[in-house]
Amino acid sequence: MRLPLLPRPPPLAAAVAAMPPRRRRAARSPPVPPSPPQLSSTPPPAAPSLEAPKSGTPDHDAPPSSTRRRLPLAAAAAEAKEEWHPLPLSAADLSLPLTLPTGQTFLWRRTSLYPLRFTGAVGPHLVSLSHLPDAEDGRLAFLLHSDGSRPAARAALCDYLNAAVPLADLWRQFAAADERFAEVAARLGGGGARVLRQDPVECVFQFLCSSNNNIKRIEKMVWTLAGYGERLGEVGGFVFHRFPTIQQLARVSEQELREAGFGYRAKYIVGTAKELQAKPGGGEKWLASLREKELPEVIEALCTLPGVGPKVAACIALFSLDQNHAIPVDTHVWKVATQYLLPELAGKSLTPKLSVVVADAFVTRFGSYAGWAQNVLFIGQLPAQKVVVAEVISDNGSTKPTKRKRGVNRNHAENM
């Protein structure tokens, strides 16, 4: 007899789905073992992890490195986004420590020590300068902080830094002409002390602050003057401004500057601003025209401005008016001259007439770029002992010193 066919059982998944829900039993907590007797108040050291540190995570047990900076995440991210652009200058062409904080300008600030960076305004461009660490020649590069065209900022920087002048060739010529220069050049590393080509208006008012003054006060005064210009931004805790125009400076009162600590220089700054404002075509055009004049005419013209004497005029001519053979003669340069160039003048006092003799001797020895050679010899005369005296000599040769510890950047003033 044939048995009837039984219905096929449903698939396993369907059967499970059709089952009524199963009631869960609450899981029992394991019994808590009794606490062991406490033998010591000091907890035992944690067992070392046997796992290797994962890739991309910091190794907190690694010894601290003197070359590694621990930055906040935001600062590290910002630094990673920085875009540095190389300039056509190696460290031998321009050394930042030998160029920016050595008395040519008082507006740059050291905004980083490792790596070394200086920040300042070049016209409307707020930039930082640094030597690229991975470049074999210590290539100089810039970082643009302000809005604007990068090519325009690069062109302005190259002009400001006098990039077209072949410094290495000049130093070779100077060293061949003078043993003292060769000695100082070797001590300074063989190159890098470059003469700037500053905006003439900016240069005039900076050196009006330098008369019979010390570095720290000059920096503070110049920083105050810069504050009357357009604000460009903040870097490293310093607020930077574009240097004010003659028109902006002419609106500042003498009383306001005196209250800011300028003393008798307030009268010269206000007077020079008004004098330049009254020049036919404007003071900017008049100052720029001096770049086409001969040096004696330039010195004579600058000395018509209130507070400008022959030494300040020579500084302005050398550092902003293309007068590369101008020689600002102060006690440092006088010492070099009487020791190496004109020993017959040793023991005599510096006078305006002898300043001319010294300047002529430098030009005879070093030629049409004698001012660049003088700048190197000036840097070589700066004290290098533990405590130094940084001073700026006035036109009449008097000084007002201020003590500074070695290693403190002479260009770093208080942020005002």
TrEMBL record:
It is found in: Nucleus. Residues 1-77, 397-416 are annotated as: Disordered. It catalyses: 2'-deoxyribonucleotide-(2'-deoxyribose 5'-phosphate)-2'-deoxyribonucleotide-DNA = a 3'-end 2'-deoxyribonucleotide-(2,3-dehydro-2,3-deoxyribose 5'-phosphate)-DNA + a 5'-end 5'-phospho-2'-deoxyribonucleoside-DNA + H(+). SUPFAM superfamilies: DNA-glycosylase, TATA-box binding protein-like. Keywords: DNA damage, DNA repair, Glycosidase, Hydrolase, Lyase, Multifunctional enzyme, Nucleus. Pfam families: HhH-GPD, OGG_N. Belongs to the type-1 OGG1 family. This is DNA-(apurinic or apyrimidinic site) lyase. The lineage of its organism: Eukaryota, Viridiplantae, Streptophyta, Embryophyta, Tracheophyta.
